[in-house]
Amino acid sequence: MKIVRYGIFCLLMMTAGSCVTARQTEAYYGKIEESAYLRNDRNSMLSQIDIVPFVINHFTERETGDSRRPKAVVINYDGCRADMLTLLSPETSAVFSNAAEGGLYLMYTGGEGDRIQNTRTAPGFTTQFTGEWARGESGHGVFNNGLIKKDEPRTHLVLLAEKGYRTAFHFLWGAYRTIFSSDRKYCRENNLPVEWNRCRPPVEMRDNPDEALFTEVIERISREGKDEVDFLTCIFENTDLAGHHYGFSPESDPYRQALFEIDSYAVRIINAIKNRTTYADEDWLILISTDHGGLRLTHGGQSVYERTVWVSSNKEWK
Fold this sequence. Notes:
12 helices, alpha/beta, 318 residues, 15% strand, globular, disordered N terminus
């Protein structure tokens, strides 16, 4: 677990131009840390770059004698602030039922030190997919929206495909095809089993494209046989869209409703996994996470509201 000390974290936010006061920061974390499911706190946050090695290790670091086939899914709620989780029901939500088996962890995005990056969608998810920040010699290069990822580092989708696993990415935002164009080309040239599935909602679902994405993910997760998927990641967008239109805040009713709807999709995705006829012979890692938070109607800065993200895991983080 990567540790970032509270004082250093606050200094990062202050030097990056954050206007959030110490009292506001204390109130923000104080509310979040009341959760009984939380396995860490502001003093021991994970880094967003920790997701890739955790996923890869699930496939490669197997316990002796475990013959189950490793599988994994990462379900993303785009732009979901950490304090929004306090609105979810511990009894019925996907985030908390999943965390009951492993844990709910605070995490930070937006880079660190001389590798600070915007807390926007493209940098956040490219970091989540590559395990690297944008800047630096090993960086992925996507430090803002509108940029294309460098050839290296490769995404977890590609790394697992090179090990013989079938992987899939389901998304709505067409920009991901451009952002990951180097990986897509690499997969074509090397005949790797990676699916880049942009969802194009039918007319009857265009008012709620997340529903169309959910339908596609359920179908792909439920498929069994020679073309079944081993690792799937997907991104639901309505939380981010509602935040931009109505505010990234627990007081914003559309933002709350978007979270409740996406969380209900995640519940059904997890149920679909557990209803697979081969589930007993499979070892599933299930992660639910996000790319960034938000402040008022936007995100991209270094405030505590934008930098603090989270991950729900059905397995203890090691």
